[in-house]
Amino acid sequence: MAPLAYWAARFVAEGFREPTLDPDRSAAIAVALTGEMDRMASDGVEGARLLLGTARRIVTLSWSSTVLSLLAGGLPRSTPVLVGESRPLNEGRMTAERLASAMFRVTVVTDAALSGSLADGDILLIGADTILPDGGVVNKSGSYPAALAAREAGVPLWVAADTAKIAPVGSHPRHEEGNPSHVWLDHPGLCRNPVFETVPARLVTGYLTERGAVGRAEIEREADRTARLLRLLEA
């Protein structure tokens, strides 16, 4: 995952500034970076509040802690949220339960019905396992057809992720295969369970990060910056 590489590179970069790196200093750097992670999350909420506050209905799917934080912190409770359940493990139900417990107006639909329901939404908001250097997004399976339906319906697609999830220049997407028995317990040999897929950059309106709403050019610059940081790991 991109965040692991990013934070490892940041740790090495901070350490290179020190003549010696003893255990106490290593711990201090780790604490400082952890604080930066926390600030990323809170800054992301602030940056998303203006966009989400004007929406009449939000559509999302699966489970994303970043999406949940943005909705909980930046969306009025009166704004309806439509959630795709994201089979086979139904992570979308977790999202719906959290939102409902926070008094949001939530409706859950099957994955098959999500695309047809997008015409009633103002924003399709998804998370990201990884943002690719070209602006494409690796996310839970079901994201690509939802993105295509959003484009057809004229609904903007926003991706919620901090910049640590931007993969370095030169990296390529890897799509995880899940346990096929999750699809059909009695006949796993008949099944595949692709967990992630790539949403092409052309379908993405923008990215909600700790720096606010950014476009593809900012993603490309950050991907290059991360690649330069990672070279420190190879030195």
Helix content: 40-55%
Q: Give the number of DSSP strands.
A: 10
Give the biggest sheet: 7 strands, mixed
Q: Quote the distance from N terminus to C terminus.
A: 21 Å
- Adjacency order of strands in the biggest sheet: 3-2-1-4-7-9-10
CATH topology: Rossmann fold
- Class by alpha and beta content: alpha/beta
Order of helix and strand elements from N to C terminus: HHEHEHEHEEEHEEEEH
Structurally, the number of domains stands at: 1
CATH superfamily: Translation initiation factor eif-2b, domain 2
Number of helices: 7
The level 1 CATH classification is Alpha Beta
Core attributes:
7 helices; 17% strand; three-stranded antiparallel sheet; seven-stranded mixed sheet; alpha/beta; 10 strands; 235 residues; Rossmann fold
Secondary structure topology:
Blueprint lengths: L1 H14 L7 H31 L4 E4 L3 H10 L5 E5 L6 H11 L3 E5 L1 H7 L5 E4 L3 E2 L5 E4 L2 H11 L3 E4 L35 E4 L6 E4 L2 E3 L1 H19 L1
Parallel strand pairs: 1-2, 1-4, 2-3, 4-7, 7-9
Antiparallel strand pairs: 5-6, 6-8, 9-10
Helix pairs in contact: 1-2, 1-7, 2-3
